[in-house]
Amino acid sequence: PPARPSGPAPRVAVNRLFSASARRRHAIQLYATAELGTQLHDAIGMTNAISVGMRINNIFELGGGVRYLVTERAAGNDGFSHRATFFGYMGGNFTLDSGGWVSIPFGVDIGGGKDVKVFGRAKMGIRINPTNWLFVGVYPFNPTYSYIDSQATALSRRNEWTFPTTLEVGFRF
């Protein structure tokens, strides 16, 4: 048998597998998104949004942004009414596979502003992550409610439910 060395085992200097900054980047990820959508049967309910947010532990999401809404005017007034509103977002991103390529985002947008007094949207869809920094989401028929102050312009409806389908493109930093 080979002879065993006596005394304590020698210490070897090694680098940590994950640095503290890498662990923080994994725990909190910042992202920015752009979103475009409309109801599939008409142009009422068209919506665009730009938002920023953070994903915590790759599950919980908090964010906010600006949403641009297109609503119908009253009979006799041509065209559509255009409104912008601020919103906050809270939700989750539930990964379906071990590689993190496919996930189901689920959450709620709540906001309001000068003309859009109340805005709410239940958001659920599917997200594809083709790279570490890019993601693309599709949100079909998500219920959206807006209560609009129609005194400034003649709108046909003050309370409006729409079900837009939206496409989202986002970038993680």
What do you see in this structure?
The chain has 173 residues and is mainly β. Helices cover 5% and strands 55% of the residues. The chain contains one helix and eleven strands. The protein has one helix at residues 20-27, and strands at 28-38, 47-56, 60-72, 80-95, 102-112, 116-124, 126-128, 134-139, 144-148, 159-162, 165-172. The chain has an eight-stranded antiparallel beta barrel with strand order 1-2-3-4-5-7-8-11. Strand 1 (28-38) and strand 2 form a beta hairpin.
Q: Layout of SSEs?
A:
Blueprint lengths: L19 H8 E11 L8 E10 L3 E13 L7 E16 L6 E11 L3 E9 L1 E3 L5 E6 L4 E5 L10 E4 L2 E8 L1
Antiparallel strand pairs: 1-2, 1-11, 2-3, 3-4, 4-5, 5-6, 5-7, 6-9, 7-8, 8-11, 9-10
Task: Give me a quick take on this structure.
The chain is built from one helix and eleven strands. It is mainly β. The longest helix is centred in the first third of the chain and has 8 residues, at 20-27.
